[in-house]
Amino acid sequence: MKDWVTNKLAKWCIELRAEDLPDDxxxxxxxxxxxxxxxxxxxxxxxxxxxxxxxxxxxxxxxDAVIWFESxxxxxxxxxxxxxxxxxxxxxxxxxxxxxxxxxxxxxxxALAATGPDAKGIELLKNIVAGYEVCIRIGMSENRKSYHTxxxxxxxxxxxxxxxxxxxxxxxANALATASYHGPRVADLTLSSDMGANVKESxxxxxxxxxxxxxxxxxxxxxxxxxxxxxxRYDPKKALAGLDDGYFPSQAGKYSHAIMRTYFxxxxxxxxxxxSIEALLEIMRGQNLKHDDIKSIRVETFKQAANLNNLADPTxxxxxxxxxxxxxxxxxxxGEDTLSPPTSECxxxxxxxxxxxKIEVIHNQSMDSAFPVKSPARIFVTTANGTxxxxxxxxxxxxxxxxxxEDLVGKFKTLARCRMxxxxxxxxxxxxxxLRNGSVKPLxxxxxxxxxxxxx
Length: 456
Prior knowledge:
Blueprint: H1 5-15, H2 23-43, H3 47-60, E1 62-66, E2 73-74, H4 76-88, E3 95-96, H5 104-114, H6 121-140, H7 150-165, H8 169-182, H9 203-218, H10 236-240, E4 248-250, E5 253-255, E6 262-263, H11 274-286, E7 294-301, H12 303-306, H13 317-320, H14 324-334, H15 350-356, E8 359-363, E9 377-383, E10 386-392, H16 405-416, H17 422-433, H18 441-449
Parallel strand pairs: 7-8
Antiparallel strand pairs: 1-2, 3-6, 4-5, 7-9, 9-10
Helix pairs in contact: 1-8, 2-4, 2-5, 2-6, 2-16, 2-17, 3-4, 4-5, 4-9, 5-6, 5-7, 5-9, 6-7, 7-8, 7-9, 8-9, 11-14, 14-15, 17-18
């Protein structure tokens, strides 16, 4: 068999054994499951997610898989499609700096839709680790960075779903090749002047293409297995770096698996904005400032953040997720918790818009070299009593500011507040925490019976 990327990744996935995974990797896999479900609690009520749910139900039909927090049972592809939209729509989901995107919103819904109730929890964790490994390696090997997660998450979906389907190594290689051709191929998300539509980074649709690629391969369908060796799009050396030697390379050193470099998010907006928000809060708390004490703010940040839409008065919730001034204004006017996530009252809120217009965003070229390892921002807040400065580059949830299990449980409970009963919350958390020593049935049952209502 040739040393094509598809072949090498397929072989690695098939040979991966749950009993060989270290405890810290299993703990990380449990953490990304908990985080994805937490993000879906408010996310399932967004208009974008509701639209995906409707199409998933009408297009794919009934089955045994669960649309979370509903009694509806649908085909596995439909469930993963719908739940992926719930996880990703608010931009609260996990991310990975090497791949520059959000693996969890695709891989976790896939794993929970593809598994059966009799499956072992440890196998669920193992198949999630495999999906993260594949899609992150492909994402980081893109020669032209797209900042468009759907370009590569479908390949991780194919790996995770393929392992559950029991397809052969050769079939999985063909499935990965097919997913590479069928999946989204956006050149650069930041080039859009209409940034803020429901489509976002195409993560839910990448889930569909990943499932279909697996199904096609199971029927003998073949793909061009050198797809990820074509250097016009990918760097195969980056995709396979360290794979045969048992490590994942990152800017911070070597890790056993790609999933270990996953970060978590506190705010429902683009990760590139978080440094500006944290810097603003540092100054407001340190100087005991209220929002109306502030006359102006200057934000200096790296190119990609400066190129976001940065609208003071966005027209949609999704558009607001890509605006530094708007996100900072929400925190300043209504408080930090309001950005986890914002409600509809934030759109066109007079005080938020007024504050956002005080904020100037500047591209500081000296910060560009820090990205993507860090997301730096320096802000200058001018008041009647002077100008105050703060600089932030390492964020809450980064590996250099690691979270404990209690932190992730705290995020879950925050997002579930006023939306889900305490009993349902604890059933889900307990089921996730018992996965490595039990079956997936308690978690699937908890997700099926839990009810979730809008907070507003």
